[in-house]
UniProtKB/TrEMBL annotation:
This is Heme utilization radical SAM enzyme HutW. Gene3D superfamilies: 3.30.750.200. Pfam families: Radical_SAM (PF04055). NCBIfam families: rSAM_HutW. SUPFAM superfamilies: Radical SAM enzymes (SSF102114). It comes from the Bacteria. Residues 50-278 form the Radical SAM core domain. InterPro entries: Coproporphyrinogen-III_oxidase (IPR034505), Elp3/MiaA/NifB-like_rSAM (IPR006638), HutW (IPR026332), rSAM (IPR007197), rSAM_sf (IPR058240). It comes from Shewanella japonica.
Length: 461
């Protein structure tokens, strides 16, 4: 039996701060997939075949931003109105074509997520048209339909058009309420403006208003973070995500660091180390839960049950997610899909020769440049662990007894290192375990790779 510290963490008087050295990635996973070539015949077959998935989602990508934030390495295209308008027109056409296919119509969609980029940078009229295109798909009763973006520029016309055309959840990247930290990060608006707008939006009787906060931003001290948490509680938002700043290569913070600089505020170059970020997470989790906020995952809490976080929860379960737009990712019939980001290539793929014998009812959405992967044979098995560890409770009911026995040495090591507790029915993460849950997921997949078991034993009961 092979056990390493990268799997188990290390013994420490303070596992929250020292169980692992650092969190180096936002997600964990392993893949038994390989790139495949999707020819025109296979592409047509996919869209003309009914799904076998029980749960489904749509992911729609809007790859435009007015400004590049210091922590982001995903900036794709500047938000020029004419460029956005052309993109949205073609995107809605593609959504309409897709919605009419046998694949789309064969099973309702439980959730829709419009991400980016900054989707709220599109106009009110474009939000309405996008919502109408989404409504052409068969949606489950009470389906969650999320529009992601920023508060700056999200006026009442955009909010009302979104509500009138099926959107019922709004996720805003606040990151920090502190005006100086926000300025250093490349964000718009000051604290007072954000609080006022969030309090207005949160008065809606049914829409879910969710905000993201990042801990570990340059210039963001523990005192500022504590004020950020209090502002999140006071602003009226129905849900909040607490994300640790991850030093992804290519962002402005990373490039400044390579030159020995810190993109701090005008008065502070403070940059939280891993131990301070752990303390920030603990403070945020404890503060929210002391105010009776319910934890839905290791990084997401809700004030009341209107916030469900359906997309984020189901996406960790390996569901089918049909992707649309340049840079959109998902899966079709178990095949992982990632559309290429290049906007000109995406538009070129939409240029379809008109055929007089081919009606719009039988046309398929364009096949755009990107990567397709073969089905991952361990996807359903791995999803059990990703979903369980992310939620904080890994139930043994969904696993064969042999699997639990095989993993017992790892589980016991986690318990010894203060990351989890075990009983006969489940493994529960401690506060430290929830902070390090991505490292633990990565460690579990490393454990399975170095201590393989029979493939048939890996099937969920």
């Amino acid at each position: 039996m092979i056990l390493t510290s990268s799997m188990t963490g290390i013994a420490s008087p303070d596992p929250l701060q020292h169980a692992f050295k650092v969190k180096s990635a936002p997600h964990a996973g392993r893949s038994g997939s390989r790139p495949i070539k999707v020819d025109e015949q296979l592409w047509q077959q996919w869209w003309q075949t009914e799904t076998t998935a029980d749960k489904r989602a749509l992911y729609i990508h809007i790859p435009f931003c007015r400004k590049r934030c210091s922590f982001c390495n995903f900036f794709e295209n500047g938000a020029k109105p004419e460029r956005i308008s052309h993109y949205m027109e073609v995107l809605c056409q593609q959504l309409t074509l897709a919605s009419q296919t046998k694949l789309a119509q064969s099973q309702p969609f439980d959730t829709v997520y419009v991400g980016g980029g900054t989707p709220t940078d599109i106009t009110a009229e474009e939000i309405a048209k996008l919502g109408q295109a989404i409504q052409r798909f068969p949606l489950a009763d009470n389906a969650e339909v999320t529009l992601e973006g920023r508060l700056n520029g999200f006026d009442d016309a955009k909010f009302n058009n979104a509500l009138d055309n099926g959107f019922n959840r709004f996720s805003f990247g606040v990151q920090s309420f502190d005006t100086a930290v926000r300025k250093a990060a490349g964000r718009f608006d000051d604290k007072e403006t954000l609080l006022k707008r969030l309090q207005q939006l949160s008065q809606h009787p049914s829409a879910s208003i969710v905000i993201d906060l990042i801990f570990g931003l340059p210039g963001q001290t523990m005192d500022i973070w504590q004020q950020d948490i209090q502002a999140a509680i006071d602003c009226g938002a129905h849900g909040v995500d607490l994300y640790q700043l991850i030093g992804l290569a290519g962002n402005r913070i990373d490039k400044a660091s390579e030159k020995g600089k810190v993109l701090g505020t005008e008065t502070s170059e403070f940059q939280a180390d891993s131990q301070t970020r752990a303390s920030m997470y603990a403070y945020g989790a404890n503060a929210l839960e002391s105010q009776q906020w319910q934890r839905l995952s290791s990084c997401h809490w809700r004030r009341d049950d209107r916030e469900r976080s359906v997309y984020n929860s189901l996406a960790k379960s390996g569901i089918e997610i049909l992707p649309f737009g340049a840079g959109g990712g998902g899966s079709i019939h178990g095949h992982g899909m990632m559309n290429a980001r290049d906007l000109s290539e995406w538009h070129q793929a939409q240029v379809v020769t008109e055929d007089a014998e081919l009606s719009s009812q039988t046309r398929l959405p364009a096949q755009v440049p990107g990567m397709a992967l073969s089905p991952n044979p361990s996807a359903a098995f791995d999803a059990i662990f990703k979903r369980g560890l992310d939620s904080g409770t890994l139930s043994f009911d969904g696993m064969e007894t042999d699997v639990v026995i095989h993993l017992q040495p790892l589980f016991e090591a986690w318990q010894q290192n203060g990351l989890a507790t075990i009983d006969d029915t489940c493994l529960k993460l401690t506060l430290a375990g929830r902070f390090w849950n991505v490292n633990m997921q990565t460690g579990l997949f490393e454990y399975l790779a170095k201590n393989p078991m029979n493939a048939e034993a890996q099937l969920a009961s």
